[in-house]
């Protein structure tokens, strides 16, 4: 449990996640998922924007001095603290009824070299799972702040024994790193496309050992970053910089990180 100034922020992040969960689940249950063709994401994007507006409204009332960054309305406000909201991570899953989607809420503060995440909550109500962390206080999963288990990354120390997760192959191809991805895939023990937040949460739980994505927004990364690092792992951009604003991410249990970066930096 957090016992300092982050306590209120972490508790408030859970309140925000509770509100988001109620809204996303209500819409999720009401979606028409009759499969006729490639799904139109317009309706689910409307749902995402509605949830973001809901969270922004709560932030304006309770944290009026803090900035807010979201996919829908961009950056609002300024100052040394910024809440980052990703209302629905995994829109394609959401629209097709796949339960692997989440709301990600994080709080960043200004530090040397830029912003650093200090609080993060990832809530996946269709999976009945939630994960959270506050800087220097550990990472947890459970039903509430008072009913939780501490997270810890794995101790796998060789890539040949490691499980590696990612989101889509096409993202690697579009980024010009397909050969890097394939080389890494051949040398690890196992690869799986769990995708987006799910890979990073399983890394924090110690179920997998590494993951990476070449294209991510701040909303995709900030909460994941603090949860992974507080679970004992390492979270950086492909250049090795520990920033949630790098546009890409590689995360590991820490023991594998330098090797992973070597693969991703190859020409």
UniProtKB/TrEMBL annotation:
Residues at which Mg(2+) 2 binds: 220
UniProt keyword terms in alphabetical order: Hydrolase, Magnesium, Metal-binding
Cofactor(s) recorded in Swiss-Prot or TrEMBL: Mg(2+)
Domain of life, source organism: Bacteria
Record-listed Mg(2+) 1 binding positions: 86, 88
Enzyme class: hydrolase
GO function terms (MF aspect): histidinol-phosphatase activity; inositol monophosphate 1-phosphatase activity; metal ion binding
E.C. number(s) listed in UniProt: 3.1.3.15
InterPro entries found in the cross-reference section: Inositol_monophosphatase-like
Pfam family, any one: Inositol_P
Biological processes annotated in GO: inositol metabolic process; signal transduction
Name of the protein in its database record: Histidinol-phosphatase
Organism expressing this protein natively: Nocardia cerradoensis
Lineage: Bacteria, Bacillati, Actinomycetota, Actinomycetes, Mycobacteriales
């Amino acid at each position: 449990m957090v016992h300092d100034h982050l306590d209120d922020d972490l508790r408030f992040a859970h309140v925000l996640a509770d509100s988001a969960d109620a809204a996303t689940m209500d819409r999720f249950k009401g979606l028409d998922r009759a499969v006729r063709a490639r799904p139109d994401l317009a309706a689910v994007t409307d749902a995402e924007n509605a949830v973001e507006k809901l969270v922004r409204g709560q932030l304006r009332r309770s944290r009026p001095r803090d900035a807010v960054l979201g996919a829908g309305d961009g950056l609002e406000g300024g100052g040394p603290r910024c809440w980052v909201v990703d209302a629905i991570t995994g829109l394609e899953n959401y629209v097709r009824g796949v339960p692997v989607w989440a709301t990600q809420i994080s709080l960043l503060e200004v530090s040397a070299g830029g912003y650093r995440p200090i609080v993060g909550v990832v809530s996946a109500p269709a999976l009945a799972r939630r994960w959270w962390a506050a800087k220097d206080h550990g990472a947890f999963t459970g039903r509430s702040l008072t009913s939780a288990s501490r997270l810890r990354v794995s101790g796998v120390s060789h890539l040949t024994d490691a499980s590696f997760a990612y989101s889509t192959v096409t993202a690697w191809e579009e980024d010009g790193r397909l050969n890097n991805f394939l080389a890494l895939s051949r040398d690890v023990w196992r690869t799986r496309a769990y995708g987006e937040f799910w890979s990073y949460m399983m890394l924090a739980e110690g179920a997998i050992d590494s993951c990476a994505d070449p294209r991510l927004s701040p909303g995709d990364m900030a909460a994941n970053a603090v949860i992974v690092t507080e679970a004992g792992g390492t979270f950086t951009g492909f250049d090795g910089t520990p920033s949630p604003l790098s546009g890409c991410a590689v995360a590991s249990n820490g023991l594998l990180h330098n090797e992973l970066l070597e693969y991703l930096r190859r020409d």
